[in-house]
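Researcher: I'm preparing a figure for a lab meeting and need a structural model of a single chain. I don't have an experimental structure, so a prediction will have to do for now. The sequence is pasted below. Please return the structure as tokens so I can convert it later.
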Amino acid sequence: MKDTTLYGALIVFSTLISSVSQILLKKAAMKTYPSRIREYLNAAVIFAYLVFGLSAVMTAYSYRGLEVSLGTLLETSGYLFVFAFDVLIFHQKVTVKKAAGTLLIIGGILLTVLA
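Model: Understood. Here is the structure written out token by token.
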């Protein structure tokens, strides 16, 4: 059980840094660049892809100690992270649909993990 908790925490952390990578890419996409090549070859984009690559390696490693069904369930936490970052960083409004969807995701994770 202890190993499952450790690998579960690793996959949630991996999902968190993957979400950070997505936010970095979104912020980079909102900027204007002097050339097409600079859109893809700049520090923010390169760093975001490196973080995403690290996340992929961590996720693959975490499946050594998790059942696939539990791992994919824990990876859904990425939706929660991106939702929170969108609200906190990009100041997007929380609509009733977004709030309901987020609560359904949290409920589904809790039901499956605690059952």
